[in-house]
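Q: Please design a sequence for this.
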């Protein structure tokens, strides 16, 4: 485990201040063109978070699903048009995605202050960053300067690139290693599951079709609870859901505590605490919230900067839901 090195990296990232680049993006990217950007986003989101406390989880998931498909380029925000009805949002893996319109609202506020300067992609990253912070998670400093995609990827591409609900440790490590993450950071980024819910549709296979698999074993009372909420045959499996952990509105390390106790909802939650590559890290995060926060912060930055469009690539959309 290399948590000391991870902590040092985070301290360096947070302490770099302005003028430092991560690839072609910078921590002070909008210093002259839109210096009030972060304050606009934060001020607009606070009352929304207070009114609907499920919003942070929705925004964090929205960012994850956007960044998994060709990098963080706001492509998930594009609405289908008549000649291309198979938009990214048509993917079955984007079932339950919410709050896309909230990014468009933030964009309109930013446009009023800084016309045609700030990408929807950067606004989405800032919104996800605020979602973590408002939920009592770490305050993450993120570099900016992303550009928006000029095309809307098909649902087939989203189907292929967004990890399935049945993904295991091998899948998780492969995906996040491709984004430059260490094993520690890969385990840490999974801690985003501490916020929000999981739809029954995504765990029916685990509950009823993989019985006896030692890696899938749950604490018996917890398994019984999930089965009572998510019956094998139900007309409401698309809308029924279970909480990811008991403190679902708070960004904390209870996700790891639950997984260690056999109360992980998804397959990855169970495998991560039994696989020798990841189990010691998950166990450490279950007992040390601060180290989890440090590793999650570096992982968040790596995810948000992997494969992004910059410079002459992409565009800055005037409206987030339309490719100009």
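A: Design:
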């Amino acid at each position: 485990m290399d948590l000391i090195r991870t902590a040092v990296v985070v301290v360096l990232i947070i302490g770099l201040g302005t003028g430092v680049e991560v690839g072609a993006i910078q921590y002070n990217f909008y210093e002259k063109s839109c210096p009030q950007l972060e304050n606009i986003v934060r001020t607009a989101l606070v009352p929304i978070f207070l009114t609907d406390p499920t919003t942070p989880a929705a925004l964090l998931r929205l960012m994850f699903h956007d960044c998994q498909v060709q990098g963080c380029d706001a492509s998930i925000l594009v609405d289908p048009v008549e000649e291309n009805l198979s938009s990214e949002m048509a993917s079955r893996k984007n079932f339950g995605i919410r709050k896309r319109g909230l990014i468009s609202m933030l964009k309109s506020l930013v446009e009023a202050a800084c016309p045609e300067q700030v990408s929807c992609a950067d606004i989405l990253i800032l919104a996800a960053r605020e979602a973590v912070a408002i939920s009592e998670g770490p305050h993450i400093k993120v570099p900016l300067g992303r550009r928006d995609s000029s095309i809307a990827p098909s649902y087939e591409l989203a189907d292929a690139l967004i990890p399935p609900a049945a993904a295991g440790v091998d899948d998780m490590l492969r995906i996040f290693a491709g984004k430059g993450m260490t094993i520690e950071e890969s385990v840490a980024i999974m801690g985003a599951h501490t916020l929000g819910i999981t739809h029954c549709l995504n765990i029916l296979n685990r509950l009823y079709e993989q019985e006896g698999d030692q890696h899938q074993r749950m604490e018996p009372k917890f398994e019984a609870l999930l089965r009572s909420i998510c019956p094998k045959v139900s007309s409401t499996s698309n809308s029924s859901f279970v909480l990811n952990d008991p403190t679902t509105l708070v960004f904390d390390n209870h996700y790891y505590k639950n997984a260690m106790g056999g109360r992980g909802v998804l397959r990855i939650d169970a495998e991560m605490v039994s696989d020798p590559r990841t189990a010691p890290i998950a166990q450490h995060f279950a007992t040390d919230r601060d180290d989890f926060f440090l590793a999650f912060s570096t992982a968040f930055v790596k995810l948000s900067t992997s494969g992004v469009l910059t410079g002459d690539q992409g565009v800055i959309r005037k409206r987030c839901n339309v490719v100009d």
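Q: Thanks. Anything notable?
A: The first strand starts at residue 21 and ends at 22. The chain is about 45% helix and 5% strand.
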